[in-house]
Amino acid sequence: MCGIFFSLSSSGGASPTQETCELLQKRGPDSHTTHTVQKDIKAQDGASSAYHLTFMSTVLSLRGDHVYKQPLVDSETQSVLCWNGEAWKIQGERVQGNDTERVFNLFLHAVKHDAVEGIAEAISCISGPFAFVFYDAVNARLYYSRDCLGRRSLLQGVDHNGNLKICSICDSASADCFQEVGTDGIYTIDLDHTLTSRPCQSKTIPWGSGRLKQPIPPMNKSVPDDPPALTTDSAFVLELQSRLRQSLELRIQNIPEPPNYTPGQSAKTAVLFSGGLDCTLLARLSHEILPPNEPIDLLNVAFENPRVAAAAKLNQKTPSTLSIYENCPDRITGRSAHAELQKTCPGRTWRFVAIDIPYSECLSHRDHVKRLMRPHNTEMDMSIACALYFASRAHGSATTDPLIHSGSPYTSSSRVLLSGLGADELFAGYGRHGVAFTRGGFDALIAEIELDVSRLGSRNLGRDDRVLSHWGRETRFPFLDEEFVAWVVSAPVWEKCGFGLPGEDTLGIDSEKLALRLVALRLGMESVAREKKRAIQFGARTAKMETGRSKGTDALT
């Protein structure tokens, strides 16, 4: 994980503010470096001018055997790369060690001949999440982009002085001018020809055009005549388990030891853990990949919600013996899933980290969370962002025994967080998917899933990245691996969920995400396989903390 700042100015360098530097260094605490470029140009009328480029990168080192400082600068051409990503594969081959230099060399080779199409082809070779800014000094071109699923944050805007700025986060001074960089392709600026007019004007190379291949194929829209029942031994379920494990292996094998690491005690991997199906499945499969003596941290967040507490006190005839935190839905399912993991994988140290957030603490961090999630600015954004912010801080009380709820103060050493995001969109996990099927059968269900998948890149992953990365940790999404997503969307809908299938109720399992539920059953996770879907803001109780009639879509003041 890295932090990126870039500016393009025709009136002197535009350096990042102190606030921007501090926020970027929280994302990348291992290194921060600034590089500047000045290039003189001549307009058609013979007048001389210059453009100034400022690059700053911070680095969270998670690949290779040492810290690879950025920005990378080519000594021969003076081209520059700021890279915030994980190239898991290049040209279909797994990248061993550090990926940043591999990507830089790929780009440098690409621009030697057909620069624009060469970059497009180079990016098509990369599998993994990314956001980058690349300056091709030979051809005086700037390129910047996010991957098509939008898994890394990148914002752009023109400040009040007319300078183009591109950054991983939004500081207070830029709140009004920044917007998310789109996930529709690669953006490029011909510096020599556009600087004299508007340096922020860019050309977009869309995914699927020229040599820029679209990683995600069209949705399989076939409708079954007589679909067979899914079972734990169905071919699709078996391959699903194998492919999800392969995606997970890329993301948790060979993670470097974090600072102050103690073998057998410190964790390299943690799971954003509600106890639901998706995150518990990732934890269970991680057990089969990681060394048996390596602990896995399960980060479970619960909030004091005054509105819920007041309602419970009013309606409760007998006082509950559980605390307001232990009464949270995600805490209850988290404890249950922890016990099931311990039962099915008894040799592993499963460290349950109970992260309890008082209402007063939530209020004290509210403005900071609001700043991190910009330009998103609704009540729902805040309720989700708060849960992610405190979960990724990873500070709470830890226990390894599911029967003991009172733990010792603990902060996870892990710099890698696993998230189950993407499973609901791919496998029809939302309640509205069932509504769509009831309304219009398989055609309506397919259309709803297709809509979800098509807008993954344009929704909330950038917001989540800005919030989750604030504590110097990187979140990885096994369900959003390009190859995995491509395989799932190519499969017929009746293999992914149980709507309209014969015998769908025989095992007492919901139709939503049926294939994933069957994988959980195969792995011995019977209770988890039957767990209901619940949104994080309701499970952790960050939604509607105050009384009133505010809606999730209301803008924050």
Automatic annotation (TrEMBL):
Taken from the record, one Pfam family name reads: GATase_7
Q: Does the keyword Cell membrane apply?
A: no
The answer to whether keyword NAD applies is no
| Domain Glutamine amidotransferase type-2 per the UniProt entry, residue ranges | 2-200
Question: One MF term in GO for this entry?
Answer: asparagine synthase (glutamine-hydrolyzing) activity
Q: Name one GO biological process term.
A: asparagine biosynthetic process
Q: Could you tell me the keywords of this UniProt record?
A: Amino-acid biosynthesis, Asparagine biosynthesis, Glutamine amidotransferase
The record ties this protein, via PANTHER family, to: ASPARAGINE SYNTHETASE DOMAIN-CONTAINING PROTEIN 1
The name on file for this protein is Glutamine amidotransferase type-2 domain-containing protein
Organism of origin is: Penicillium salamii
